[in-house]
Each structure stands twice: as C-alpha cells, then as structure tokens.
C-alpha cells in the first residue's frame, strides 16, 4: 500500500524523524491560508499523488511543474489552483498521468547539500538495509546504474535496529561535517526504527537535506507498506487513498483476486501468479497485447470467477478473453462450471478462448462443449494464444 | 536418488487441524508420502486422517522420528512455526503459507542460517520426488519419475513445465518450489548445488520471474559450477514496473528485477532459454541435445 508524502511525513514526525512544518490543502484558499500560517518567507507547494518524479513532472496543458516555490500567499494560491483538479504527468505516472486532488504546502529551509537515503529489504542479504548516497535529488536508479560506487549500504537486524556506529560510518562516507554526526546518527537510527515498527516495504527520502545550520531534514518522503503485514497495523488502513488506486484493482482485491490493469486488448484469466504472468507474455509473444494480469488463485469458486469476468469486461479496451487454467488442486470441472455460470450472468460481449489442462480436463471440456455457450476451446498454450490474438484482431 | 526428499522421509504437518492442512495431508498420504503426524498447539491427542496430533514439534519429532515438516499455519503465526521446527532440529522445513510479513522472514532467516535445518518457501507449492514423496500442494499425478531436476518461484507455472516434460517423456528427479516471496529459505543456487551433486539428476529446468536478482545470481553460479544441461524460463516480460504481480516478490522496482536483465544473464551463462511458456519442455530437450 502506498501513501501520500504528507501522510508519510506525519508518521515520520511521530517517529522523531525531522521533517519541515507543512499543511495539506484541497483548495487554493486553503493553500494561501497554509502559507500564511506557516509564516516562512518561502514555501514549497507540492502535488500529492502516489507517484514520484513530481518536481520534473508537468501539468497537462500548462508549463507548471508538480512542485513549485511560493513567496507569497497569492503565489501559493496560484500554484495550488494550477495543480488541483488537473492531471500531472511524471516519469512514474505513465503518459496518462494522475489527477491532483490535494497539495502539500511546506515551509522552506536553507539547504547546504542534498543527499539521498532509503530503507528497504535487501533480498540478497536477507535483511533490511539503509541505503545512502551523496547524489541527492537525482534519479537514484540512474545513479545506481552509472555510478554504483556512490551508493552506500548498511544492513541491520530488524529487532536490534541500526547501530550507532553504522550511522556514523555513513555520515563519514557521505562527507558530513563532524558537527552533524550526532544529527545523522539520530536521523538514520530513527528512520530505520520507523521502517521496522510500521512494517514498511520502502521508505525513501530524496532529497535528504543537510541544512545550513548542520542538521538533517527529510525534504521528501515516499513510504510503501508491506501488504502482508497490514493485518497488524489497523490504524494505517485510514491512510489508504482509494482515489489514487485503479478502481478495478480495488474491486478485485475485495473479491480475493489479484488483478493488475494493463493497456492491451486481450483480457486474461489464469490460476496462479507465475502462470498468469506467463500467459501475458505468451499473448505478447504471439503478437497480441495483454489487457491485464489476473490470478484467480488456487481455490476460486463460481462467484469469484464471475466477478473476475466482470472486472475484465469493465475494461472497454478488451476485445477478447483468454482463460488459461492448469488444474492442480483446482479441478477443470470446477472452472468449466464457473465459466458456464458466469457466461449466463455476465453475458460475454467479446470472444472467449479457453484452455484447460490438468485435473479432470476431459470432463471440464465436455461441460464447455455441451453448455451451448459460444466458447472457443484450445489445445495447448500456443493454440490458445493464436486463437485469442486472431479473435482480438478480428474484432 | 533424488534431492531433499525420498521414500524414507518422515513428514509431519504443522497446522494439520486446519481445513487446508488436513486436505493436503490427505493428498500427500494418498500419494504415498510417509506422513507420520501433525502439530496444532492445544490439540494433542486428536487424530486427523488417522495421524496423531501433537502440541509441539519437539513432541511430534520424539514420538514419530519426523525429519521433515510442511507448514500450513496462517501467515500471522507462520514465522513462529518455522522457528519452532528449526528449534526442534527438523532437517527439512517446507513452508507453504502465503502472506507472511517480509520482516518476519528477516527475523527468521538468521536463525535458519545458523541452524542445520533447510527451509524451503514460504509461499511455495512444496517439494516432490515423483513416485516416492510429495510434500506440498502440487497435483501428484502430473509428475513422472526420471532425471530432470525442476525448480521454480511459481506454483502453477511449475505444473505447466512438469506437464510438458512428462508429455515429452522426460521424468523428474525432484521438483522444488522455492516460493514467490521476497525472502525465501532456499535460493536457486542452493538447489542447483544439490542437483549438480545428485547423480540421478541429468538436466535442470528452472522457472524464474521478475523481481530481485536470484536468477542473475543463479546464472553466475551455473557458469562457474554446473556441468549439467540447464534450461530456463522467466515469467513477466510484459509486466509493468512498480506493480506487484500476484507474488509479493514479483515486482520490478527501481529499474531492477526486469525479465530482460535476467534473460541476458541466463543466456550469457549458456543456459537454454524458453522464449514462450509453451516452450519450457522443448527448451530442456534442446539443452540436453546441445550438450550431447
């Protein structure tokens, strides 16, 4: 689960990690009032969307960036007006961009240097790590690719946390003045503690700022939570902003389905995540474009399969559907019955190609063949892919 | 011969009194696995599908001589169940449970690494040596005894691959589901080491997917240490960055973990690539032919 910058900063502030004072605004008037209330000579007005790259991002139909500086309350109102209700396109939003529904008005500060730090779980090490770099404010992926020696990394045990010496080691390698080391130690250790206590999967501060007075401040904050751990953080559920999420994905999650919307024309319904990804690849390999990832899981029932078809069909770009089931624990007869039931209640408006294999496959095929529904059956993966691509192209 | 499990493996199920645990314990018994008992705290004395239930893994081990366990305990308690199995000295711990918080696994891993136990999973279908022992949720009948070692991060994709192998007349020595989570107990490299050393495994088929760098590490290992033919498929060439594709570990983040990078590393190591998921069995056949 992702949250907004202002929400992440509230959580960091509560965890003792230094952030600047700021207020969220949903109208230009609120933005002006926030500027006045903050009382600093300069404020940043920042679009709040669940995607990074806002500083370089651009509002559709104007020259405005996703983050701009305001020197007066009127400035703040004007910038907020240009953002709110408009679409911001950044390197992370894709070409369609995302609508800005709120802005964060944040006090300015005197910046000496911009750094980078993040906490995440390193799969290779098998533990959380604190990553830091002198290349602050830049695209860290580029830095990692072009100059990997600039990326520093310190693994830590989740329960012991980051040791003081590890924080000082990073402070030294980052070239921070010795007078700032105690600030750095507190900052890094509290950041790591927040990561663990919140069960985050990513906590990224870019830029991390060394101020003119020698302290460290999180100028930006990106926080993502481990979905598997949300059960023990009921309070975080209130931070979910469904307006930022793909409605079909939210709907699928509620039905116990795993769905990701893509931009193609061939809807996919598959059991198992690996096979679902492979089915998308298969469609592409044979010249089609998958419209979605959809894993119905190992024990899907008629209701779930029906809902899965509804979700796929709610995408107007879908011109054909491929069902690919390898029956293991799930019997092919179960899925065949579900397909027939779903076809009665949903009413397919596009061609349906079904490939069944595995447990009770012959009985499953018989159910489909005698159902009277217009289903194209396929023998094998390649046959299925060719048939569904042809069907989508003919539509 | 085979790796990890055979007809002498004595297996208990942690979480045997749950619906899923009971269902799959029966499935393993039907396959011929030597299931010897189960564990659910507070339910000692009960029997499930004819097997005795114990309160703790240590009691179950002492009473049954179990040397392997399969874990179906719900996600919130699964890390503790793994620790209990490791603490009781169970040699092979197979965690099927999906949805364990990643930091729980980060807490478990150092304990596992410092022990003599081997952990497979979590979020995996399990391990099967066809005709001898099935520990997990895979459909047993698609497998045939033979000489191809199979390992994968995904369940149904493994079934697909095994099915293709069986159709082509290639049986399997052992099939290992590594699991779809970011942190798993055994890596491709761990299993490659076992397959390379197993005289009964003549070739290896691996299925990877987007996310992390386990496939790249495996490729480097194959180049250095594996003399047997290897074929591979990578799922997720069409997956968009930043989106979790079902598995918690299947996500391209920060430009890392793309299918392209993995395929490049695998090709560079001389591994035969299946370009389509329909081609996994054939890729293994090509790999064997190439090595003569």
The largest sheet of chain A is:
6 strands, antiparallel
Point out poorly predicted stretches of chain B.
none
Corresponding CATH architecture of the largest domain in chain B: 3-Layer(aba) Sandwich
- The helicity of chain B comes to 25-40%
Which class do the helix and strand fractions of chain A yield?
A: alpha+beta
So what's the overall shape of chain A? elongated
Number of helices of chain A: 12
What's the level 1 CATH class of the largest domain in chain A?
Answer: Alpha Beta
| DSSP summary, beta strand count of chain A | 19
Instruction: Output the strand order for the largest sheet of chain B.
Output: 3-4-2-1-5-6-7
Assembly context of the chains:
heterodimer
CATH superfamily of the largest domain in chain A: Succinyl-CoA synthetase domains
Please, how many helices of chain B? 9
Cα-atom radius of gyration of chain A: 25 Å
CATH topology of the largest domain in chain B: Rossmann fold
Tally of individual domains of chain B: 2
